[in-house]
Amino acid sequence: MTESQPGASKGAFADPEYAEAVVDLLGAIAYGELAAFERLADDAKLAPGLADKIALSSMAASEFSHLAQLEDRISELGADPYEAMEPFRQALDDFHAHTAPSDWYEGLVKAYVGDGLARDFYREIAAYLDPETRALITEALEDSQRSAFIVEKVRAGIAADHRLGGRLALWGRRLMGEALIQAQRIAAERDAMTALLAGGVDRPGLDLAAIGRMFTRLTERHSERMDELGLEA
Amino acid sequence: MTESQPGASKGAFADPEYAEAVVDLLGAIAYGELAAFERLADDAKLAPGLADKIALSSMAASEFSHLAQLEDRISELGADPYEAMEPFRQALDDFHAHTAPSDWYEGLVKAYVGDGLARDFYREIAAYLDPETRALITEALEDSQRSAFIVEKVRAGIAADHRLGGRLALWGRRLMGEALIQAQRIAAERDAMTALLAGGVDRPGLDLAAIGRMFTRLTERHSERMDELGLEA
């Protein structure tokens, strides 16, 4: 077992703290999809034309495709899906309130960078979970491949106006900063999830050095995404 | 051939005016789905709780499920999907701007009544079209069955507060009135669609008496829906 695939066994659910942590995580992802839906649907209003509006709206709609599965799984684990989502509502709503795009391009970069960050973060955590939960999360976070259109649009925008590149690079850093602030807040408030990362008697966990490496990986992937958009990280 | 199923044959596309009218109609339905998505996503913000918000948001997301097919068909007919939608933008945006719900219940009634009206209207027109177009439209307007939750919520709301029933009954009439105003505006502006209803040399059409009967049917179905919600039409 390597650090990147240290997963818990299915038997881990015998530990009530493990089950609680999984419910927490699924609740966070589910509310994240709902919040992303709302914000993408809003941000689509900034689109300069119908084709662009439809492209971003359909990314919004696709956030819904896995929500029912997440809700079902939370119920199977004996918890109420809406109660499970509630603790993450404030942090995720605050993230979106503090990163409301002021124009179409900021909306595109946010959709690309924000989505990517969330996906990477949850996948990192999923590596420490039982195979079934891991598969559910991986599927829920599946990239819809629609985001190729974002790369194309942002690069075209920068090619047409070089100042845009500088502004969007700053914007990307602000998104990363806000995401870290809210992630830290969740970590401080949700003991079960933090305990999950720390491991248990029969589950491998992350020590501080491993958490540091995880953040390094997240930052590297963020830089790669910025690079794909033609932006300095 | 009866009045309710008088459909044109597939050969009707040899008539350029027929093809133009079909493009018009598909453009109207496609933009209608986009506009409905936007407004439902907005109206979901009025939900009193997470479960309700998710129910309405997922109705919004489902508006997207057939949009790609409509766009493809418009392209096959040699037209640009976004240009085809454009002429209906103002009327549909105006409809939504003039019927912005002031609370959660108005949003629910609008989703139920507005969706139903649009579906009935397009199905009436689809009866005059070639089988392939008719099938595409019928499928695009398929009821997602999710609306049962609306009936339940509205009835429960009225049971808890009888004044709500009076207010929502007025609201339902206003929705019908605005829908008729915008439909009339579209009919006045879009010659191809009006010509479609009037028929052609080798296509049966509607005379004034038949149009009158169609509106009677639409009004009757509207009354039935209001009745389902526990509201006087």
UniProtKB/TrEMBL annotation, chains A, B:
Superkingdom field: Bacteria
Residue intervals of the Ferritin-like domain: 17-200
Gene3D superfamilies according to UniProt: 1.20.1260.10
Protein name: Hydroxylase
Organism: Nocardioides daphniae
Phylogenetic lineage: Bacteria, Bacillati, Actinomycetota, Actinomycetes, Propionibacteriales
